[in-house]
Design goal:
Rossmann fold, alpha/beta, 5-stranded mixed sheet, 627 residues
């Protein structure tokens, strides 16, 4: 048998965190286990934190929600090429399935690969649905134990306001998903979450805990409808929010690009183009006494007195330095007020920041005029009604309630990503994010198209209005129709960059679970099947699905290059990483090493396919993992 450490296992967030802690603070581990008290003492240099009260967000069920985020899943992604559009060509992915388990399947392969996450989660209005989670055990067992799946097989339950844990249930649903989503964001990435007044305050607290208060970027306010009779204490609740957090301060939301046309270099200053900046500010002598002093032109000896109602912009020491560096522009005749050189290369950002207010109008002409008037720093978009009409024009009927505007999401994406970046939406709904990305790729000149990854549960619609009976079916059909519409509107050829999508469904692992059975009877049955040789340890009825599962476990993305080398033998390559994966039931050292692959290639094969001698040789000479 192979060393258990060489077995290819499902990812566990807790295991990954422990491994990182072991690298950073090995002294916090005793006999292989983390000593939490020891870790706390190492972090508490002043000895002040033990037992101290602290500000924190807490709710009924938080411990269980945290555990759900850390637990592994036995599920995986199954490719559906026949249900895709231009499979393998676009880099876009649509995943039909529960989003918590899906996020867990993506932890290795997409860690810090996502540039932007956009979410439009359930708003917890009292009639919304809340996901009930336990995907670390077999779904059937959990449902039998808890009775949380209905007789019709529904995965969701409503969360009415009469529920005593109304807010707690929503927080418990959101926490593990936001936590796992953060792992996928790049250091220069950000997450945008649409929300209304019902949970806006709780979302902010939750995001502060997961992302850190310092990584709060801001909140956009979007007027989604005109005022009507729906009100709260006499106020019409007609707006929503888009809350933005960054993974780190490496993120930059591009506002409106500044114009540098007025920067010139008439005196051939080696520091480059400049403009003359005002040396005075609006503060008084009483407000800024240290800025109230006289300055002297070193060439003429002329003295300039400060204005008590508008003191200098610079402190006295900085002013002296600027004069020595030739940055102060004194009037030739001694009349007027000195100015200073503001160099183009000292401008910290090329962009003017966006306003947090999102204005709404109804026509493209109004949008254009409004954005021009405000130098395009105020985003302009339509209301919910505009989005509903847009979706109806695609389907021919009102296929979905309360869709988001592609215009809104497209503009958020445009100011946040570059070509080749990935946008993730794991509450995909009707597929607006995917549609917006397609539109963006058709109108912007990217070197590589922006890509999307959408995840949507296949739960049933309350009121089907067409052939689609589930949310996932609406999302999938919209992506198909949007791909056709965008191609037609912009006269693009079939399989154009940025259009199309690869479809996957969330399914059970192809690996035999005899090593981690849920019950004694399951363990006995699995072991008997394995010992009798009734098939390999991997279900190969769909080799492509088995390969995708291994691909994800090894940390390769769904877009990794795959080359078939022999029967059931494949070469994976991506970002200077290589792996040879074989499902052959009998292999030797020679058959695995006959291919011309890089020296650091990782080899993966069935546990029972190699002799003990070949396992020892491969473990000694190469990197071997077994299934």
């Amino acid at each position: 048998m192979s060393d258990e450490r060489d077995r290819l296992e499902k990812p566990s967030n807790a295991a990954a965190i422990r491994a990182k802690l072991r690298e950073i603070v090995p002294s916090a581990f005793s006999e292989g286990e983390l000593d939490a008290a020891k870790l706390e003492s190492l972090l508490d240099a002043d000895g002040e934190s033990s037992g101290a009260e602290r500000y924190e967000l807490s709710w009924a069920g938080k411990r269980e929600a945290t555990a759900r985020a850390q637990a592994a899943t036995e599920q995986t992604l199954v490719p559906r090429p026949d249900e895709s559009v231009d499979y393998g060509e676009s880099g876009n992915h649509f995943i039909e399935g529960e989003n918590l388990a899906t996020l867990k399947t993506l932890q290795r392969s997409y860690q810090q690969r996502i540039k932007m996450i956009y979410l439009d989660p359930p708003y917890n209005t009292g009639s919304d649905f809340i996901y009930k989670d336990d995907y670390s055990t077999a779904a059937a067992d959990y449902e039998r134990e808890t009775g949380q799946r209905t007789a019709d097989g529904d995965k969701l339950v409503s969360n009415p306001e009469t529920n005593g844990r109304y807010h707690s249930d929503w927080l418990s649903m959101m926490y593990p998903r936001l936590f796992l989503g953060r792992n996928l964001l790049r250091n220069d990435g950000a997450i945008f979450v649409s929300i209304d007044h019902n949970e806006h305050h709780n979302l902010r607290h939750l995001m502060d805990e997961i992302y850190g208060e310092d990584n709060y970027v801001g909140t956009f306010v979007w007027k989604r409808r005109t005022p009507d009779a729906r009100n709260s204490g006499g106020m019409s609740i007609d707006h929503e929010y888009v809350v933005v957090y960054q993974r780190s301060d490496a993120f930059e939301m591009r506002g409106v690009e500044k114009s540098f046309d007025n920067y010139t270099n008439p005196d051939d200053d080696p520091r480059g183009p400049w403009v003359a900046g005002d040396l005075k500010n609006s503060r008084t002598k009483d407000e800024r006494p240290t800025m109230f002093y006289e300055i002297t032109d070193p060439e003429t000896g002329h003295t300039y007195q400060p204005d008590p109602n508008s003191v200098w912009r610079l402190g006295e020491e900085t002013m002296r330095q600027y004069i020595e560096e030739g940055r102060i522009l004194f009037p030739d005749d001694g009349e007027g007020v000195p100015k200073f050189k503001r160099f183009q290369n000292e401008i910290e950002s090329r962009y003017k920041p966006l306003s947090s207010w999102i204005e709404t109008t109804t026509t493209d002409e109004d949008i254009e005029l409004f954005e021009d008037a405000f130098d395009r720093t105020v985003l302009q978009t339509g209301m919910t009604g505009t989005a509903t009409r847009e979706l109806k024009s695609l389907f021919g009927y009102k296929a979905y309630d309360f869709p988001k505007s592609t215009d809104l999401i497209r503009k958020l994406i445009r100011h946040s990503v570059d070509g080749g970046d990935i946008v993730l939406d794991f509450f995909a709904g009707s597929g607006t994010t995917g549609h917006a990305v397609m539109q963006l790729n058709a109108t912007e000149e990217f070197d590589d198209p922006v890509r999307f990854m959408l995840v949507q549960l296949d739960d049933e619609l309350d009121e089907p209005r067409g052939e689609e009976t589930t949310h996932a079916e609406v999302c999938e059909r919209r992506l198909r129709l949007a791909s056709e519409q965008v191609a037609d509107d912009h006269d693009l050829p079939g399989a154009a960059p940025g259009l199309g999508f690869d479809k996957y469904t969330l399914g059970e692992s192809r690996f035999e679970r005899w090593g981690r059975p849920d019950t004694e009877s399951e363990a006995r049955a699995a072991l008997e099947r394995y010992a009798a040789g009734a098939g390999s340890a991997v279900d190969l009825t769909d080799p492509d699905a088995a390969l995708v599962e291994v691909q994800l476990l090894l940390g390769f993305s769904l877009d990794a290059a795959v080359e078939a080398l022999a029967d059931h033998t494949y070469h994976l390559s991506e970002d200077d990483r290589d792996a040879l994966v074989t499902f052959a039931e009998s292999v030797t050292y020679e058959t695995l090493t006959e291919f011309d692959l890089p020296a650091d290639t990782q080899y993966v094969c069935l546990d029972g396919s190699l002799s003990d001698t070949d396992k020892e040789r491969l473990n000694r000479d190469l990197s071997l993992r077994t299934i």
